[in-house]
């Protein structure tokens, strides 16, 4: 039986505030255990929450970016459950009146079609602490670190509009691009800044009723998300085809072992007994405030891709890379303007710079080569002082902190040889050393001779230590070989 | 509303309260009287009345996004009877 998959996502996005949603404790990732958990985060008796204005604004900015309904009032509620990393015994969240209502996020699918993904709503809430189950403590215990407790989150809930793992990943990447472009989230997925819960069900193709769904929680990479969906879809189809039934349950996917398992059943615990939080009043959002935020919104990925293509004439593929990486895009724009060759700048930024950063596991702001420094190098490629090949060597030296482009080029004598007489001499010497190759070239059919040039070029570039101007060498080489053809036939 | 013993068991579990079976009928009676009060409140005619969040009709005050708390981990740690290198230790929980 042909099956179809129905996927909805719930995404937890940590907001990039300095302090927590309800307290003045810091939110920096990787601090010593419990060093950022204050009396409010620890739920000490008598403490009261005070809402962080920036968290509210970040949530509203997301709502504006996805053209969502933004109600005038939203209400915080208590979601009650017991777990050691939740000191209050409830999570302060929103249910009936979330801050962001229904919106839309259109995505471009690999086959070129545009698909709209409806956003059901997005609500503000606090993150829980972390439970560590392994460490240098007695194995009968779990260690609780409450630094994360109270970190502001928006939970974004989609309608079940996605049909496969590819669509889910395209959507997830787009969402990542939106929140990082807005600057409301640092986007560091490995640190848990964005965590995806995936609701999956399958049904016979064409059926109108939804199948029973399972939820795979806390996926923190696009790759794991893709793997977990594929695995769960296949599992559900296998169960159904063997005549079984799908149990509604929460599952956990282990990206290292590539195995998913059912979490302990929480059938009773699912009764969260929500009620409006008496410690917090309804939040009122004025139209004037929304208008102010709307005017301050930074450029979003779709708009950025379009502008970069128009302004710089770069390819759609490169524009797309920049669209989802505002920092890289800014780097490119600085380099492109400074060297006055946008195509070259785009090529180098998306190629060499990205590759080196990845290899060194560095973020762009830690790049040893700044956009301005790169642009000096590219200028030397543009004015043919050095070839593209030598430029990579110069770039490597710049990366290792050995100086700026001009300094390295002059110190190492990398300057490209464009002096015709010098080049003619080198070409002549290489041809004289390889009479066999010349005979072979002359004897080859004209249409296939071009392929034979590579062998000569390699030797000439080697003889010039890579410094010969390749276009010029090519011209001289063809001239000299044509002479050889003439003298052979004459 | 009449509560059954299974309701008491379920409520006790959700609230993480240890209720002795011998106390069930007394707990039942007390909860039922609370629910009777709720029923009485429910009977009031509230058609057209907006729910009130605050007697002064105020809305939530907001604070600036600034770090105002300093690290008091060592002071808080004294309140816990089991810690390890800054972590609070609890009987193993895993799900």
Please tally the β strands of chain B and state the result. 3
What is the oligomer described by this structure? heterodimer
- Largest sheet, strands/sense/barrel of chain A: 8 strands, mixed
Instruction: Kindly report the average pLDDT value of chain A.
Output: 92
Radius of gyration of chain B: 22 Å
How many structurally independent domains of chain A? 3
Helix content of chain A: 40-55%
Structural class of chain B: alpha+beta
Task: Describe this protein's structure.
- The complex is a heterodimer of chains A (490) and B (95).
- Chain A has helices spanning 53-65, 165-182, 222-241, 287-296, 301-312, 316-323, 326-339, 342-359, 371-382, 388-399, 405-411, 420-433, 435-443, 446-463, 470-489; strands at 3-14, 51-52, 73-74, 77-80, 90-93, 103-108, 114-126, 130-132, 141-145, 152-158, 194-204, 214-219, 250-254, 259-262, 275-276, 283-284.
- By secondary structure, chain A is α+β, with helices and mostly antiparallel strands.
- Chain A folds into three domains: 3-289, no CATH class; 299-411, no CATH class; 420-489, Arc Repressor Mutant, subunit A, CATH 1.10.10.410.
- Chain A has an eight-stranded mixed β-sheet with strand order 6-7-10-1-11-12-13-14.
- The termini of chain A are far apart.
- Chain B has a two-stranded antiparallel sheet.
- Chain B is built from three helices and three strands, in the order H-H-E-H-E-E.
- Helix content of chain B is 36%, strand content 9%.
- The model of chain B has no long low-confidence stretch (mean pLDDT 91).
- Chain B has a domain at 5-42.
- With 95 residues, chain B is α+β, with helices and mostly antiparallel strands.
- Chain B has helices at residues 5-14, 24-42, 73-77; strands spanning 62-63, 83-84, 87-91.
- Chains A and B meet through strand 2, helix 1, strand 9 and strand 16 of A and helix 1, strand 1, helix 3 and strand 3 of B.
- Strand 2 (51-52) of chain A pairs parallel with strand 1 (62-63) of chain B, so a sheet runs across the interface.
